[in-house]
Write a structure and sequence with these properties.
6 helices; mainly alpha; 140 residues; 0% strand
């Protein structure tokens, strides 16, 4: 008796290949967003002065926060340090969310963007890293 493959079934290798590329794309989006934020913090802090003032952060902190964001993005982009990078990225984004909650901006655009970037950080890593899928077997 021969088994025929259903036309709607995707071979496992194709599904893994698609997941890998989806993870890379999500991860690249996170890295680009973080790099842009870090560069603005370093080289154009006046662009975000009103946001810093609203959230209670001093302008001088951009010289500290910018490199931290860039370091997180770099660590996340490198496969060998991606898990550490993901932990640091989501910690940073959690702080951003907390800052907006503290000033009464629950559900604000920056807060939602931070939440989505955090989800994409781990979703991208999950899709592109078999080690994470082994630890968190969400899909069977």
């Amino acid at each position: 008796m021969s088994e025929t493959m259903n036309l709607h079934q995707i071979p496992e290798t194709t599904a893994l290949h698609r997941a890998l590329w989806a993870g890379r794309i999500m991860s690249a989006f996170v890295v680009v967003a973080l790099a842009a934020d870090g560069m603005i913090q370093l080289f154009a802090p006046a662009q975000i002065a009103s946001v810093l003032q609203e959230t209670g952060f001093a302008m001088g902190l951009t010289r500290v926060v910018g490199p931290i964001i860039l370091a997180c993005a770099i660590l996340y982009a490198i496969p060998a340090t991606a898990v550490l990078g993901a932990i640091l990225v989501t910690g940073f984004l959690g702080g951003a969310i907390c800052a907006h909650v503290r000033i009464g901006e629950l559900g604000s655009a920056p807060e939602i963007i931070s939440l989505l970037l955090g989800a994409m950080t781990w979703g991208g890593l999950y899709a592109r890293d078999a080690r994470i899928r082994a630890i968190l077997p969400l899909i069977h």
